[in-house]
Amino acid sequence: MAGYIQEYVDYVGQIGGDQQYEERVDFSDWVPEGFGTSDVIAYDLATATLHVIDLKYGKGHRVEAQNNTQGVLYGLGAYSDWGMIYPIKAVRVHIHQPRLDHISTWDLTTDELLRWGETLREGANKCLEPDALRVPGEAQCLFCKAKATCPALLRHAESVLMADFDDFEQLAVDTLTSEKLAMSWITKS
Fold this sequence. Notes:
By secondary structure, the protein is an alpha+beta fold. It is built from six helices and five strands. It has a five-stranded mixed β-sheet. A hairpin with a 4-residue loop joins strand 2 and strand 3. Helix 2 crosses helix 3. The longest helix is centred in the middle third of the chain and has 18 residues, at about 110-125.
């Protein structure tokens, strides 16, 4: 573990500039009550670039910086705070996954970052509406904290499971085992 973390520390060290670690970022100007903790925020005075660096230690899911919503949100929060201190022309989102030997970066101008912020604000506000559309799926539910109690995910899971039984009704009763007959009664109740 120490070796992988050292790779990350070395990577962050190469970026240089004014750095803050485990920095709380508040992006509630774009997402109501939105905040997080950025692993590293660094500012490069020579290029007026704000760096938002995220360590992903897991190795089961490769994460890209490009179009990374978490990276944008952390960038917005960092921009909101650091923009009062420094002129910021660009934001670079970094994802470092040492256990996958993967580093990904994505550069945005501040105008691009703020446009992303407006798009995310609209989406966040729609999500807060009582009748908001819920579209469950593998990618969007992967890290969702509400999936254990999400009615839309339950309906989705039921439809996926029942898809395997599309021809269930067409089976002749005399070819079914007692277990399959019992299952038929349970699913129709």
